[in-house]
């Protein structure tokens, strides 16, 4: 397995020393750089892509959350901090883990292995235009759902509901983001609030799309032509 490349940023040098010590004990991990100055870390990360960043939150000049927002790409992230009040905000950013100092080696090791699993799924999706499953986070838990089990996606502002035969998942993500992320997986927008998997469409008329399982969904006027072109 390829190395998980890491950069760690913490204004406290003993914390960086501990992370370096822990990383040396985990296989397939490469700690590329450590930074006490978050501005220097930001400059480095803008020029160098890494798999994972381990960030403190409260730091001078720029905090860990701001640093993550300013990156031109989205690496995996583990927050390692004394603060507990940012946990909800951190999970909204889709972080791998939120560790509170002091952290023991076994807890750290589990977080790193979780990041490895995320990276494996991410890479497999990027290597193929279409997979038979999708990965997403709902209620702070990563879920793997087969494409054939996705009946439709419905938008509610900042959230979407992913509907399967057995369960509905609420996901903190806008419809447009989901549409862009999975554009090569066979999904098609049929309404401002609905996305379906094209292989599940049985028929359609001027106002509705009928899925093969008998479900009827609304068809927006502005999406009729694109649906017709996609299916024909």
TrEMBL record:
Keyword tags: Phosphoprotein
Residues in Response regulatory domain copies: 5-116
InterPro entries, A to Z: CheY-like_superfamily, LytR-like, LytTR_DNA-bd_dom, Sig_transdc_resp-reg_receiver
GO molecular function: DNA binding; phosphorelay response regulator activity
Phosphoprotein in keyword set: yes
Record-listed 4-aspartylphosphate modification sites: 56
Signal peptide per UniProt: none
Chain ranges of the HTH LytTR-type domain: 134-232
PROSITE patterns listed in its UniProt record: HTH_LYTTR, RESPONSE_REGULATORY
Keyword Phosphoprotein: yes
Protein name: Transcriptional regulator
Organism: Chryseobacterium angstadtii
């Amino acid at each position: 397995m390829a190395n998980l490349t890491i950069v760690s940023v913490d204004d406290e040098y003993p914390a960086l020393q501990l992370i370096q010590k822990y990383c040396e004990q985990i296989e397939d991990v490469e700690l590329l750089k450590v930074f006490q100055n978050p501005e220097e870390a930001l400059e480095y990360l803008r020029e160098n892509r890494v798999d994972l960043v381990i960030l403190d939150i409260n730091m001078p000049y720029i905090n860990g959350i701001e640093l993550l927002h300013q990156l031109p790409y989205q690496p995996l992230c583990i927050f390692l901090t004394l603060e507990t009040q940012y946990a909800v905000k951190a999970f909204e950013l889709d972080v791998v883990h939120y560790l509170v100092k002091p952290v023991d080696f076994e807890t750290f090791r589990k977080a790193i292995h979780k990041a490895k699993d995320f990276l494996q799924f991410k890479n497999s999706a990027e290597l193929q235009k279409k997979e038979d499953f999708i990965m997403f986070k709902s209620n702070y838990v990563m879920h793997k759902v087969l494409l054939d089990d996705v009946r439709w996606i419905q938008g509610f502002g900042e959230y979407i509901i992913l509907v399967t035969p057995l369960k509905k998942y609420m996901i903190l993500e806008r419809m447009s983001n989901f549409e862009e992320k999975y554009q090569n997986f066979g999904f098609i927008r049929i309404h401002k609030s609905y996305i379906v998997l094209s292989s599940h469409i049985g028929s359609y008329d001027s106002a509705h799309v009928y899925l093969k399982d008998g479900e009827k969904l609304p068809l927006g006027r502005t999406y009729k032509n694109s649906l017709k072109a996609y299916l024909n």
